[in-house]
Design brief:
The chain is mostly helical and 315 residues long. It has one domain. Helices cover 51% and strands 1% of the residues. The chain contains nine helices and two strands. Strands 1-2 form a two-stranded parallel ribbon. Helix 3 packs antiparallel against helix 6, helix 4 packs antiparallel against helix 7 and helix 6 packs parallel to helix 8. This is Dessication-associated protein. It comes from Sphingobium cupriresistens LL01.
């Protein structure tokens, strides 16, 4: 059998696998309770009347960087990011619930520290470029409460049962799964925002951050795959999280776990053309708010994100 035929069969198996996800987890509408669905969608309608500015887009990205930076800062250093990185306009809040991970795998510990430093640098970089137009860090939930964001996300994916909690700080493996929830979304968010940016300077900056987020996602996915060889439940967990994210953002084949596609690993999630996926800002907030409805708060951002781009999509 030629290499060309093998490549074609691999792509066909990948396409079939994505198709099989179509009907999975469509009953996740109950997660809308965490999104405060009673909020009016008027701000989303206003947004549709005019394209967001480059500053709006960078502030949207900054909210996501606040989330990632605080998660990794807690995991590595035991504290949220420094308050010198949190001021600005909007509803200021704190990141709560995290704690230091007692890493047992020195490789994962080193990866975690590197990513933490990168994410804090992203916050600093975006804040400096936004200047006086920067938004404040909103309230962020990175805790382990049974009704908190991580537990709700894990429950939606079927990783835990009702009333249980998911603690991403309890082990190297749980930390990696917590990171997996964020990193793929960050890559698709920056790719989806790229066509909206008009300034070449800002576009270059966004491309630079996108590349780093993709490196991070690759590290996390590779680490989970390596550990999953001995503990297959880890690979299964990434598939479940992937399906849950698809059910929230209204897509049927956008997301992928790390299970093998044919005879190859699936470290890099991509389409049949070998391209990374994109998410709209609304789809990104579907996952961040843990809802498939249009709302302005919930999940990892209990009071919503700051800035003009703040509504999730109705799926």
């Amino acid at each position: 059998m030629t290499d060309d035929i093998l490549a074609i069969e691999t792509l066909e198996r990948r396409a079939k696998r994505r198709e099989e996800r179509r009907d999975f987890f469509r009953t996740l509408g109950a997660m809308a309770a965490f999104g405060s669905a009673g909020f009016a969608a008027s701000s989303q309608s206003a947004m549709a009347q005019s394209a967001p500015s480059d500053g709006d887009i960078l502030n949207f990205a900054l909210n996501l960087e606040y989330l990632e930076a605080n998660f990794y800062s807690y995991a590595v250093f035991g504290t949220p990011i420094d308050t010198k990185y949190t001021s600005g306009s909007g509803n200021a809040g704190t990141a709560t619930g995290g704690r230091k991970v007692n890493f047992t795998d020195p490789v994962v510990a080193q990866y975690a520290k590197e990513i933490a430093q990168d994410e804090i640098a992203h916050v600093d970089f975006l804040r400096k470029n936004l200047g006086g137009a920067v938004v404040a860090q909103p309230a962020i939930d990175v805790g382990t409460d049974p009704n908190g964001a991580f537990s709700s996300a894990a429950r939606a994916a079927g990783l835990i049962g009702g009333g249980a909690s998911f603690d991403p700080y309890s082990s190297d493996e749980n930390f990696l799964l917590g990171a997996f929830i964020f990193e793929d979304v960050g890559v698709t968010a920056y790719k989806g925002a790229a066509p909206l940016i008009t300034s070449k300077a800002y576009l270059e900056a966004a491309a630079g951050i996108l590349a780093v987020e993709a490196y991070h996602a690759g590290l996390v996915r590779t680490s989970l795959y390596r550990k999953g060889i001995a503990t297959p439940s880890l690979i299964d967990a990434t598939e479940a999280i992937s399906k849950a994210r698809d059910s929230l953002d209204g897509s049927s084949d956008l997301d992928q776990g790390i299970a093998n596609v044919g005879d190859a690993s699936n470290i890099v999630p991509l389409d049949a053309n070998g391209l990374a996926y994109s998410r709209t800002t609304g789809q990104v907030l579907n996952i961040a708010y843990l809802t498939n409805m249009a709302t302005a708060r919930g999940g990892f951002f209990p009071n919503g994100v700051n800035g003009t781009i703040n509504m999730s999509a109705a799926n």
